[in-house]
Design a protein that fits this description.
Elements (H helix, E strand, L loop, with lengths): L2 H24 L7 H29 L6 H7 L2 H15 L6 H26 L3
The structure holds protoporphyrin IX containing FE.
């Protein structure tokens, strides 16, 4: 297995774990359980690091002066990551669940999945 595939598989796995813990958090009333929340936030940072590792892996394999389509698709992960962080922090405040911010959080999650998934496919196809 090459480094690109390993980076994508590892990132996808961590992302999946973050989603699973997210749905666990969604089933909890407020205040959110600190343990699950801590794991969820640590997984967020690991996903961000994984995305960086994927970019490095793609660039070191393609090695061209122009940006590959795989890296380009992965750069679309930036805004959803920021949206996930901001909506995540906002959801922590107050006594009631913040429905609108939960929707923002979920949409950002789908966009992030799309960016990682599309980039993974492009990278494996060496585009
Ligand atoms: C890779 C990044 C992340 C992913 C993929 C992710 C995904 C999810 C998902 C799928 C849910 C369940 C939403 C629902 O069905 O209601 C969730 C819930 C939650 N997430 Fe995240 N999340 C991420 C980052 C963060 C961060 C950085 C924070 C906080 C700083 C955060 C805080 C929360 C909270 C508080 C909930 C519970 C919302 C509720 O009450 O329903 N998340 N997350």
């Amino acid at each position: 297995m090459n480094s690109v595939l390993i980076s994508f598989l590892a990132t996808a796995l961590i992302f999946g774990a973050a989603v699973a813990v997210g749905f666990r958090l969604a089933r909890s009333p407020k205040p959110y359980p600190v343990g699950w929340l801590g794991i969820h936030i640590v997984l967020f940072f690991l996903v961000a690091m994984g995305i960086g590792a994927c970019m490095n892996a793609i660039e070191s394999v393609t090695g061209s002066a122009t940006m590959s389509i795989g890296t380009m698709a992965l750069s679309f992960a930036g805004p959803p990551l920021i949206a996930l962080f901001i909506s995540g922090v906002v959801m922590l405040f107050g006594k009631k669940k913040r429905r609108a911010w939960i929707v923002v959080h979920k949409v950002a999650m789908y966009l992030l999945a799309l960016s990682i998934g599309a980039s993974g496919v492009f990278a494996v196809m060496r585009w």
